[in-house]
Amino acid sequence: MARRGASGFLSVTPYYNKPTQEGLYQHYRAFAESTTLPIVVYNVPGRTGVNVEVPTLARLAEIRNIVGVKEASGNVSQMCEVCRAVPSDFLVLSGDDALTLPLMAVGGHGIVSVASNEIPAEMVRMVETAERNDFAAARAIHARILPLMSVNFIESNPGPVKAAMAAMGLLDEVYRLPMVSPKPESKEKIQSVLKGLGLLKGALV
Asked: Which of 2, 32, 47, 94 is the most core-located residue (most Cβ within 10 A)?
């Protein structure tokens, strides 16, 4: 992969077979031993059926080229425990837009974002403001864009964000099965949020 220009991996946990915590550790250790590139663990139990528990992630953080986690468990207590358990230079990234700011408040480093497809500049501003410890300003940004971060998940991602981006004039609304266009009532809610943020004509926030 390095020869083809890859600079690292975002690696989702194995799905369907629901490995044990030891199985998860051995899986990622074997992966890390097969490459010199940095690896970010992607923990998204809602989609894979298995959670990378905090002690397992702490063990993985000891492996040289496992450099971070995209933490999308949706469990704020777990996210706090992760930040407490791993070294300060281990990248703890939110996998949920709406939880980015709470995670950064306890030591997280940012977000692998859905909403950045629609409002990249605003998401960058929120993260950089939080990095400067100006949480009052970051909260103001968060409060303003929270309706968009929420409506992006009114149905399974990435359906709503594609519909939103199409309404903004950023892409053609095309889906690959099994993804389909959101229901009409969902689209109405998406359009309402976009209108409220002044995004329907494609202008970024």
From this structure: 94
